[in-house]
Amino acid sequence: MVRTANGHRIHSVTRSFPLPSVIRLNRYVNAPYKGVNLTRQNIFKRDNSECQYCGTKRDLTLDHVVPSSRGGQHSWVNLVTACKKCNAKKGDRTPEEACMELRRKPYKPSYALFLRDITGAHHNEWDEFLEVKSA
Description:
135 residues; alpha+beta; DNA Binding (I), subunit A
């Protein structure tokens, strides 16, 4: 199955073809798993470089939702982007204990969605193939 890209075309010397936006394979050859590495930069990308408590984009660092000292893991679902001010305010507490609300629940991004999000290219015709959930 091929979905075209809004009337755009590619050309060879003698022919013209619709530019594909989505190519769905009927048969898949298994490739090595490509996961998203848990890094500081990737957490920032997932969180759109915004503090997950106040929304600022300045003086950012990482925060453990459940503090490490209380058994919180260094994982996708326990790390969020936070500004230094909010991180200091939260301290060694959970967001609930500090009366601070997370703007978005942390999650582990899928490889396909992560690539789409960091490139800034979002084509709605891809959604059904990437299993995108409506907000």
